[in-house]
Each structure stands twice: as structure tokens, then as C-alpha cells.
Amino acid sequence: MKTIKMALGLYVLLFFCISACKTSPEQTKVFTQADFPAPPKAPKKPQIFTNHGYQRADDYFWIKDKSNPETIAYLKAENAYADTVMASTKGLQKTLFEEMKGRIKEEDQSVPSLDNGYYYYSRQEKGKQYSINCRKKGSLDAPEEVILDQNKMAEGKPAFIFGGFEISDDNNIMAYVSNTTGSYAEYELKFKDLRTGKELPDKIARMAGGITWAADNKTVFYNVPNAALRSHRIYKHVLGNPSDALVYEEKDELFNAYVGRSKTKKMIAIYAMSFTSSEAYLLPADRPNDAFKSFLPRQKDIQYGIDDYPDRYFVTWKDPQNKNQKVYEAPKQGYEDRSKWEEIIAHDPKAKIEGIEVFEKYMVVTKRVNGLLEMNVREIASGTTKTVNFPEPVYTAYSNGTPEFTSTKFRYSYTSLNRPTTIYDYDMVTNQATKLKEREVPSGFNADDYEVKRLWAVAKDGVKVPLSIVYKKGMELNGSNPCLLYSYGSYGYSTDANFNANVFSLVNRGFVYAIAHIRGGSDLGEQWYEDGKLQKKMNTFTDFIACAEHLIKEKYTSSSKLAINGGSAGGLLMGAVTNLRPDLFRVVVAEVPFVDVINTMLDSSLPLTTQEYEQWGNPNVKKDYDYIMTYSPYDNLKKANYPAILATGGLNDSQVGFHEPTKWVAKLRDLKTDNNILLLKINMDSGHGGATGRFDYLKEEAFNFAFILSQIGISN
């Protein structure tokens, strides 16, 4: 959160590194339920719901109450059963953990970033789970100043999430956010005087994570969630003042409100955003006591974002005729008259504008073209544009964010399925990229040992769906190879072919690792996203099935060796495709899966529900209810043979309640007619992201991979 940019969307970037391991897979017995004591059985307590004239019985609705001792007892019984079943894989789990840990450089440091006279960076120390945040004044040769040690903050806590920090303009006061619940929706805001190292008495106990300083070095704006965790209010806090002022409240349940500051540092913006519309409210950063002013009133199905510039605004614009966005220049005076706007980047139906980053002399435009990210550098004065070149056919590249408005360099990362993440500075004057750091893999890694390909499956309706795959060179395509197929496919989030360290513990055991770029994401543009939501959501699931069938047809794997994995909305994907084609997969790992769709979307008190009507539909409307009921995983379970399944969850999960995977597993236990293993593993201390330490989460990943391997018949 070092710098918050005024932008249309929120993007989460994940950084991974990979390495080879040296194991020779050994085939072994595949255990079934018959090899273990009977699994826990949740009592049925039928509750009847009536919607649109239909009656629906839910035998396990009671499980959602985590204050009920019976619920906790059932969760503990399921965890104990999972441990019993997985006991024979303890050695394998340890081996996997050590492999994954061996790909992490325990003593490491990020590339320093210059911001307002200081170089900021984080470093990690051997054996420690969390980062240490540091800075140096004026020069990298200056003495190091430790501003936060996250390890000390996490001491004695079962979970810890650091949400970021912002520094006042005079460089003296740090505002920072964290929590110890494992929830990514609620944080505590604190302040620290960096001159003395002392904590200030000011404290906000519950906020949503966004913090923005005004230019007066004493005023901070922050956003607060309501009971359903919708970020709906923006408050103003003045240091030393016990009473905070409400400056904005978003009453439309489809919208969230966020606050940020421009790269110029001159403007603060509140964005009110739904999944289809937006409105911005602006305030000069040096006048924090003034009222925010709407830039343009919100309109249905129109989204815009603003980048501040000394004499104009740059506006990204999306409407039903320009789904992939276009870019305008608007004058500072009289911008309300849109006839004065000048279009500088036209809409391109084949290239989605992911975002722009505006500097004093240049604009960096990130586009998604044919499923891959492209970066263009545009000189603002002349409009001359050059493209940053990337060498491989399947890759991911993204801006790291460059804080200084006057910079003539911008920083980006480049990675692919077999290339460690590498950070570059790109000189916009000379158009030369300088390599700053390549993620080191201590246990060793040779990219040339692996084959990376882009494949195309044909969907049910004839649309071509891309897959990205990686496997060891020399592998024979004879249908006997195990495969892990991953996807997400919702919210317009693209599933980029990032460098994933952990999957090489499978790849080096003979697996093909595949990513399905299915509709519901925006991998091939905004229309790709729209064709996988609301009344077209079924495309997401049938696309994934088509990708699985393509891998089998082309003899990369077989249904008896095919494992699939997805989390959250990707867990919904796992549940839906397993109902549709239980015969197609051998193993399913559904992490924090959103599987109880109809119940969740009917409960407006739950986090995310009302604002997501634009994703799934509003089941209070009969048409939407009927459609959701065609795919809701929990509601479509039936007596049938299912694959081996592992479902995970977090007791403190604010995004997908722990009860969703728990109810799903309970109902599956009652209905499934096979003898395959079915496990539920609930983290009793954390939330949506699982374990929070950089090593602790590897234990959960090792557990998941050991489950996959054991069900494929690989024991080492």
C-alpha cells in the first residue's frame, strides 16, 4: 500500500518463484474409505425454505452458526478424520514442504523504491515468517531505518495479516493496518512517529484497509465496512482528535467506496464502484476540510477512472459500446462538458485496456491482447507510442507501481510458467529495460528443463478457449501422465500464467500443470468476462470441461490421472464441474469454495452478497433464482459416484463462510455412492487465505499436494 493510485479497478498481483526437485515417483496403493474408520456424519436438521413457489429443504443449514458447540465439535471431528486418512502421507508432506521451502530465499530483500526522498524496501530474515519494512534517506548508502518488524507484530498470534502502510508528506508519521483474525476485510489502523519510534495513541479499531494522507501531515482518510463487510463509508481522522468525521456514505448496496491519492499528490479521490458502474469524488489534497465534489454523476453500465495531471485529467472510460475501455483527455476547467474531452486512445475490440500509469512526460498503458499483457509507453506531448517487447509466447508482465510522478523510468515484473519473476526498470527516454533482480531459487532451477505451450480447446458453443501448460521436456504424450488443471473464471479476473514455485513439486514428479483461461475471467477481453457471468455463467463450467477433455484428447493425461483445483469462486467452479461431469476427474481440491450459492445470495446480511448481484444475479428475482439453481453445487448434489475430494476452509473466513465447504462435504457424505476419499480440512485460526506466514502456508499446500499425489498413486 506504499502508494495508492487513482484507478478504475483494484488489482491484486501475486509473485511466485519455482525450482526443480529430484524425486522419482513411486506408484503405490490408492487408499479408499474402506481402509479407514467411518467418517464423521453430521446430523440432519431439515429446514424448509420457500422461494418463488418452490420448496427447498436444507438438512445442514444449522452448521453456519459457529457459536454452536455442535458445529465446532463437527469441524474438529472432520479435521481429526482428515489427519487420520492423511497419516500415511506425513513423510510425503514433509518432503513436499522442504522442497517448497527450498525454493524460497530465506534471507532476501525487495528492490528499493524511491518515494518522496526515501528508498523503501522490505527484507526477510532466515527462519522468520514475516517481512521487516525499512527505508533509507536520500541514498542507498544511507543508514537503514527499520520502520516496522512484522515478526514482532505477529508474535503469539495464531494468524497475522499486514495490510500495508502510508507515510505522511513530511515523512514523519506512518499509518499502517493489520489484523490477527486472518480476515482480508477488516483491519486495525495505527500510527507511528518515525522520528521517535513511538506509537501514537490514535487508533481505529475497525476499517477496511484503505488509508490516504492529506497534504497537511495530520489528516487521514480511511474506509469502513458495514456488518456485511461492504466498504460503505469514508471517514476523516485528524491526529490527536478522538472524534472522526464522516465525509462520504455509499447507500447503494451494489456499490463499495474506496479512497486514494493521485501520483501527482495533488488530488484525493473517493471511488464509488459496483461491478458495472462507478462515480468519482475529488478533493484537493491540500484542502482536507473542503467537501468532495463529484467528477461526473454515475450512470448505469458506465465506469470511469481518473488520473490527475497538472493541466488536465486523463480519463479511462468503459460503456456498453466501449467494453475494453478508451482513454480521454479532459480539461481541468469545464471538464463537466464532455464535448471538450479529446479521445487519445480509441476503443479496440481486440485489446482490453487494463490500466494506465501517468507520469510527468509519459503514460504507460497496459493492455490485454489475445490473453497476454502488453505495455505501451506513450509520450504525452507528442502522442508517440512504443511497445515494451517480451520474448516468450506465454508470459505475464505487470507494472509494479512507480511512486514518483517526475520519474522517467517505470518498474515492471516479467514472469512465465518456467521463468522466475524478474524485475526491470524501463527507461522511457531511451526505451531500454534494465534488469534489477531475478527471483533467486536456492535449491536450483533450470528453465530450459521445461516445455511451455499455449493450447486451444473448443468449447461447447464452438468458442476457442486458451490453456497454458508446462511440463518436463522429453515427456511422452501417451495419455498416462498425471495432470493438475487449475482455473478461477469469475469477476473478470484473468488467470495469468505466473511463475508458481510450488507446482514444480508436481511437475518434477511427471505432472502436466495446466491453466484454463475460461470465460468469466477477462483473459480475452471484457466480452470474455461478460460471457461468463449472470445468465451466461454456465459457459465458465462448460469451458473448463472442454479444456479437460482437450488435455485428454491430445494425450497429455487421462481422466484416471486428472486432478483439478480452484479456490473461492474457483471452488464454485470445482463444485459445478464435479456435478456436471464426475466421471471426468480423478481428484478435486476445492479451496474455500463458494458452493452454497443460492443460500448465500439470498442472505443479504452475509459479506459480499448484495454487491455481487451483478455477478451471479439476484435470487429474489425468479429468473435469477431459476438460473442459479441450475449450477449451485450444494443444491445439485445427487446420488452418484464422485471423484476423491478435498475441501478446505477457514473458520474466520469473511469472503466465503466456513459453513459452505462444511455443508457441501456433509451432504456429499450422505449422497455419494462411491468409495473414494472425501475430506474436509478447516483452519480454525485463519480466514480466506489460509495460514498467513510465508512458511506456514506451505504446510497447507503440502497437505493439498500430498492428497493429490496419494490419490494418483504416487507416494514419494
UniProtKB/TrEMBL annotation:
Q: What does this protein do?
A: Cleaves peptide bonds on the C-terminal side of prolyl residues within peptides that are up to approximately 30 amino acids long. Has an absolute requirement for an X-Pro bond in the trans configuration immediately preceding the Pro-Y scissible bond.
Q: Which residues form the Peptidase S9A N-terminal domain?
A: 40-439
This protein's name: Proline-specific endopeptidase
> Span of the secretion signal?
1-22
Q: Which residues form the Peptidase S9 prolyl oligopeptidase catalytic domain?
A: 498-713
Question: So what family is this one in?
Answer: Belongs to the peptidase S9A family.
- Please cite one Gene Ontology biological process associated with this protein: proteolysis
Q: Which organism is it from?
A: Runella aurantiaca
